[in-house]
Model the fold of this input.
Amino acid sequence: MHELGLVSGILETVGKTAREAGASRVVSVSLRIGDMAEVNPETMEFAWDVLREDDPLCVEATMEVAYVHPSSVCLDCGEEFEHDRFHLRCPACGSADTVLITGREMDIVSMEIEDGA
Ligand SMILES: [Zn+2]
Done:
């Protein structure tokens, strides 16, 4: 379950950012995750529920995840196309010489915090 490692890293960053901002608690966190990261949404929820307990600031934080479809560009004809995890060939010319543009991101898009004041 690499989701546990992923969520653990996200919570670490969130906790650090929240502390630097003087937050008293984290309300919600928005993530953007590419389909190519092969993350299971249910496992993500589970990992989040378990691991957020480790940080007093994050105990009540909710997680929202936007899953991003992969897209690639063809190096032979320049076509940009969306695809699923398994079909990476260029639909225009059939070339397998393609480079992934989106689909591997694991970004924290935004987070909502309450400050301690
Ligand atoms: Zn092509």
About this structure: DSSP finds two helices and six strands in the chain. The helical segments are 2-20, 41-51.
